[in-house]
Amino acid sequence: MSNEKKIVLQMLKEGKITVEDAEKLLEEQDEIAVETTSVKTTNRKFFRVLVNEANKTKVNINIPIALAEVGLKLIPKNVLHVGDNNINPEDILNLIKEGIDGEFVNIDTIDNGKEVKVKVYIE
Predict the structure, then answer these.
(1) What is the pTM of this model?
(2) Contact, 80 vs 88, CB < 8 A?
(3) Which residues are paired to 86 by β-bridges?
(4) Structural element, H or E, at residue 122
(5) What is the DSSP pairing of strand 56-64 with strand 81-82?
(6) What is the DSSP letter of 121?
(7) Are the CB atoms for 18 and 8 separated by under 8 Å?
């Protein structure tokens, strides 16, 4: 049992807080513990974007998930497109929040007469 939970139970025992207050404090403590665990797990993963054009690497981005979430929120929906394919940053952000790993986007197309390959994934 965590030290924080022991303190809450001791306060309840001493009559300093009600049962309802103790329940709220314990629930909040559990939520904080879950958020902290989630952040630690998420920070170990990287958001990766790889763009090859005519067999040459044009973009190779590797950033921690926490930064990717901030960056994706700043990109307008209509900006990311390759050929006839659109990439919605909100969809990618939702997948990240769900904790899904692996490849989100894999596009092989011809753009302006050049072969273009785009991969967006979490690793």
Answers:
(1) 0.51
(2) yes
(3) 81
(4) strand 114-122
(5) unpaired
(6) E
(7) no
Same-domain pairing of 79 and 97: yes
Please work out, in degrees rounded to the nearest 5, the angle formed at the alpha carbon of residue 28 by the alpha carbons of 25 and 33.
Answer: 125
Same domain, 115 and 95: yes
Interval 25-75: pLDDT, tens: 888 777 666 555 555 444 577 888 888 998 899 888 787 876 776 666 656
Q: Note whether 26 and 51 are same-domain residues.
A: no
HEC string for 49-118? EEEEECCEEEEEEEEEHHHHHHHHHHCCCCCCEECCEECCHHHHHHHHHCCCCEEEEEEEEEECCEEEEE
